Structures are given as C-alpha cells and as structure tokens.
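Good morning,

Both structures are done.
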Amino acid sequence: MRYALRMNTSTDDISATYEQALRQYFNHCRARVPGYVKSHFQYPGVVKTNCRALGWDLLRSPLNLFWAPFYLLLMITAFVSKKLKLKTLHRWLINTPGGITTNVQAYIAEKTRTELLRVQDITGETEDFVAHKIATSHSPIHNALAPLIESSLNQYVLTRTASADITNSLASFIIGALAWKKFAMGAFAIGLLVAVEINHYLAVENFILGRSMGALYYSVFPEDPSFTMRLIGVCLTLVLMALVAPLSGFISDPIQSIFGIHQRRLHKMIDTLEKDVLQRNDSRYKPKDQYLARLADTIDAIKTQII
C-alpha cells in the first residue's frame, strides 16, 4: 500500500505531499480498526490473544497490578515536573517502565504495529518518494513518527493492566452482591468483608462456652475486625484477584469490543499520532483507563477505612 504522490519540484509541494501521504496513511489505519478488533478481541480470535496469559504471565500480571499505583504516582509527578519546567526530572520519570511486559502485551503490541499501523508499509523498501522518505532513518518524518509510534504502543498495552483491574472491581461487585448482598466495589471492600468473616469464624471457634453459644452470642453482638485482620483480608483478596487477572481478557475483551471501548481507544491513539506528527506536538497518547482504575481503588480504600 502506498501513501504518497510523486515528487514535485517545489519545497511547498513536497511538504504538501508529505502531509497528504500521512493523512492518507492515518485514514487507512482508522479503516482497519473494526477488522483488527474483530480479529483479536472477539471470539474466536480473543482465545488466541489471551491464551498467551497461560504461563509466566500468571506471575507477571499480578506484579504489574501491584506496581500500577506506584507508576501512576510517578506519572502524576512527571506531569507536575513538566509544568514546573524541571526537564531532567521529567525526562527521568517519563521513561519509567510501566511494568513487566507480558506475553499478551507483547503480542498485542506486535499485532497493532504490523496489522493496524502497518509500520512495514511505511518503513520498507519502496520506490515511492514520500514512503521512502518516511522510511529513511535520517528523514524528519521518520524521526518524528517512529518514537511516537513506540511510545503510543507502550501506553496502549498498559491498558491491559487497567482493564484487568476494572474487571476485578466489577467481579468484586458481583461477588459482594451474591455472597453478602452488599455492593462491594473493589478488592478493599471485598477484603473487609472477608476479614469480617474470618474474624467471626475465629471468635466463634474460640468462644469460652463453645461454638454454638459463640455463634449465638456473636450474631447478637458482632465484633469488628482489628486493623491487622482487615489488612490480612485485603491482602488475601488482592492476591487472589491478581492471580485471576491475567485470564480476565477472555471475558473483558469481547465485552469491551461490543461496547466499542477497544475501537474508541485505538481511534484515540491514531488521532493523537496524526496530530503530533502533522502539528509537531508532543502531547503523546495517554489512555485514561489506568487513572480510572486507580481512582476507583482509592475511593474503595477510603470507603472501607483501610487507608
């Protein structure tokens, strides 16, 4: 596929040709979004995508979930440092890794690069003037586009962690409603309910007059769990949810595609890339999913008085 016209003699014409080629390239990327989502985030393709979570991802994904709040804090600090013109600090913070790359993330990044963005179409050998210029490592367009694509892909795959966290929150909501008939939106809320159950069980088992009397007594006079017991309940819940998180894509990916979440996310990435390249901006693609997930966790923690 070619994204440019033939070379003109005028510098203005060449610039216009570059711009026309890039706009055509990004329009083709947008046109590929529906097919790309169907291939990798709907059945049966979603199975091939998420089967890669079976293996070391069962360890990597939980580590990413636990690292995510700290990464968010660093990104907020990077944003503040940029506003304060602390360039060295901002450069150091912005290059902080978002976590350990999982097999699923690597697969999605590669498929997005080759099937959606089709980077090889604008970086391979070609006789087309503009495409050749984009492919040339010293050309301004290549120098502008290549790092932006890599940065966008790195940010895009981080949405896997946020999606898993949001899925966990919804799962905890359902579990809380079914098991305790309470609206527990998050691991902290479920952890507190687990702590209450553990505390009640231990109190009944150790009641001086026996289990039966203990069950009767604590049904009338329930005992609040201690801070230590709450912490144990939350930690157990977080670990269990983190172990399930790598497999959440089997359910969450098709649901997100049905509601157009995957599509909007990809369109936003392409729009940001086009804007940054054509207007020489550096806004960079930064999906909001991770912020929403962390905000939900923070509200959950405050509500349950864990923090």
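Second structure follows.
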Amino acid sequence: MIKNFLFHRVNTVRDPLWDPMHPKLFDTCLKYITKNYITIQLEELLSSPNSIDPTKQYASIVFDDGYKDNLEYAAPILENHGVKASFYVVTNCIDHNIPTWTHILEHQFQFTQKDSLVLDHEFIPSALRSAKFTGIKSRLDYAKILKPFLKTLLHFQRNIALADISLTFDDVKLPRLMMNWDEVRELRSAGHYIGSHTISHCMLGTMQDETEILHELRGSAEIIERELNYFPETISYPVGSYNKTTIELSKKAGYKFGLAVKQNIYDPTKDDIFEIPRIELYNESYLKTYLRMTNILENVKKVIHYRK
C-alpha cells in the first residue's frame, strides 16, 4: 500500500479563497506520516517496484506548482523529519514569477476595486454573465461559484473568460510568490526531486489541440532539463485534469509516470503508472486532515454515494 500525499503551499499567511496549509499543521502531518509509514521519494519508489514489500505501508510527499513557500516553510520541516519530497513545477511560473491561473483568478477577485464584471459568452451560464459587486464579500462569493465552473470548460473557452476578467480587473498587481530556478536548484541540491507540472498549468484533459498539449508536456520537461540537467520522469497533471489523449501524449513526450488526484491509495498491482492517485491535503482541522490521511473520509463518502 502506498499513499502519495499532495500539498501545494505551506505558509502562515491566510487566504480566504485558497488557504495555504499552516506550517504547524504540516509539521503535525509529517509526524503522523513518518511514524506510521515508510516515507520514500515517489520517483525512487516507482523506479524500483520490485523492492516494494506488500506487507508494509509506504508514503510519499509531493508538492505541485512551485511556490516559494515550499522552500521557505516546507523544506525545513521536511528536513527536520528526514523526508525527501517531490516538487512538480509550472515552468512559466518559475521563469516569470507569476502564479498559476487558478491563483491569479482568486487574487484578482480579492484585490480589484472594480464593482462589476461582464462575461458575455454563450458558454457562460446566464446567471454568471453579469455581476455587480457591493464589496469584497460579494466578489468572493461570486468567485467561489465561477472558479469551479471555469474548470468544466474547454481550454479555449476558459482562456477567453480569463482574458475578460484580467482586462476588467486591470487594477490588480500580481503577487510574486513563485520560486526562481536558483531556488528550485536549492531544493534539488537538498535531495528533493523536481518534476513537471506543464508550462502554463493548463487543464490538459480539456484541451483539443494535440500539438498544443504536446508542447505543454514536452516543452516543460525540456526547460527543466535545461535548468537542472536531467529530463524529468514524472508529469503531474494540473488540476488533476487528464484523459486518454493526455496519457498517450505524456508517453510520447518522454515521461515514465503520470500523477492524478484521486484521493485514493496507490496500488502498483492495479493502478496505471500514468494514473497514479494522490491524496490532496488542505488547511483544515487536524481531525479532518487525519480522516483524509487515513482514507476514512473518502470511504465514508463512498458509502454515502453507494446508498444514494
């Protein structure tokens, strides 16, 4: 049994839309994980499947995106617990110190002073096409509905909507939250693995142009190879979005492994190595986090769903 625990940010600064995990909670998670599992770097484990003892429990620690707080807050805690993690970076974010589109979207709604937004497109539901805001609360309430919907759109549709939002909220300065390549190299020098999370954090499963998909996959790996002197083995699918085309093009691009987000335990005897599940953890109470780590919460959800 292998549990791959997925994190994104570890920070003391709070965020009302996407809250980073507090360092104290991250430390508590690692205490539990290192006590109850054999912690091993995911790529090491995947490269030596015959060395896995089926009677033992393994765990890996992985991060997506490439935020600077991974180095500032998470890395020292990982070192304290003797854990080597894997970090999957969005190369455009590292190159230009810009957050992912998901973070930019939330940041714009938090900090704009504009009081209205129009998204006049047929693919946008009528209830979301025009919004008037009375303050930050109404903006955040709208954003909490809009963001999940945008994830359901085709890639080109979502880009149209995001462009409209950026043009409207042109009073917002983007935060500088990402690592640079020297900082990524610092993680690598400390023994952590660096893999790919595409060029632009696009949702691969919603893209239709195979040339564009391959560019996102192959291009990000080539940038990592240029900066770190090795071609990464692993692609982490942004927002957990992938399909059969994604998998085939990931293989064509030269990857050996693909990472999904399924909140499930990884079974090497059953799971495809290009659909490796990860258990995503959030800044919640430790009780709820514990229920996620032990898969109790997911199992309860399955029972409820089955009974329905």
